[in-house]
Amino acid sequence: MLQELSHMDRITQLQDEIQQLLTIMSSSIAYLTSRSNFVQVSQEVPVTKSRNPDKYDPPDVFEANKKELVTDLMVKAKQVEYLIQSLPEPDPEENQVERLQALEAEMEQANAEYIQAVNRAKNLHAQICDVLRNMLDEPDIVKDEAG
User: Fold this and answer.
1) Mean pLDDT, the chain, as a whole number?
2) Is 50 helix (H, G, I), strand (E, B) or coil?
3) Positive or negative CA dihedral for 87, 91, 96, 98?
4) How many whole angstroms separate alpha carbon 103 and alpha carbon 85?
5) Measured on CA atoms in the order 107, 113, 115, 121, is the torsion positive or negative?
6) Residues sharing a CB contact under 8 Å with residue 65, sequence separation 6 or more, in sequence order
7) pLDDT per position as a tens digit, 49-105
């Protein structure tokens, strides 16, 4: 059971790391599309728009930020890869079937015990109700004992 919790912790950690990786990717795309200037990439396609200088970063700052974004992406991708490698190999299908059958038998036994406990509680409740009803219905016994 403890080993299963450890595997679940790894899976949860992997989910968190993937979420962070996607956040980094999204932020990188947002930065690259919003803080770059329009540049002519082909002689056949002229640049038809331009941005205000305060809307884009200078080329040296933009390049430094791109390198930092790439580094962040690579580090996070390596962390995700490491977590994936640390996950256990899945059990063979026969073992999974046996385990599920054992769990089902255990669940059926627990369910039967629960039903017995509920029935016992109902019986005890009925007995207590009967005793209280008898006590409340016979006021003469209380008067005889007092008198």
Assistant:
1) 87
2) coil
3) negative
4) 28
5) negative
6) 31, 35, 57
7) 878 878 888 889 999 999 999 999 999 999 999 999 988 887 788 888 999 999 999
Q: Which two tokens stand for residue 64?
A: 């430094």
3-state secondary structure 7-46: HHHHHHHHHHHHHHHHHHHHHHHHHHHHCCCCCCCECCEC
pLDDT cut 70: percent of the chain above it: 90
Angle, alpha carbons 15-20-21 (nearest 5°): 95
Find residue 45's DSSP bridge partners.
42
Residues 38-47 pLDDT 10s: 877 888 888 8
Dihedrals phi, psi of 136, to nearest 5 degrees: -80, -25
Report the C-alpha gap between 6 and 4 in whole angstroms. 5
Q: How far apart are the first and last CA of the chain?
A: 66
The residues, any chain, with a CB within 8 Å of residue 144's CB and separated by 6 or more, are none
CB atoms within 10 A of CB 72: 16
pTM, rounded to two decimals: 0.56
The count of residues in the chain is: 147
